[in-house]
Amino acid sequence: MPDRDVLEFVGDDGCTYEDALKRLGINPDTVLIINERNKSIPQDASIREKKVTIILTCSRG
Q: Is 9 among the domain residues?
């Protein structure tokens, strides 16, 4: 996230990372989701991690 913002998401069981991104107002097509072991997470995977890093992959300009 820009400027290392920290966002917290609380969702329903079975919620995916894509669901979370959309609810947070983040376009899923513009980011990568990385877990604490530095592995990419598919956006259609159910949320299992307590903490992830979201990396922007394109410019906004």
A: yes
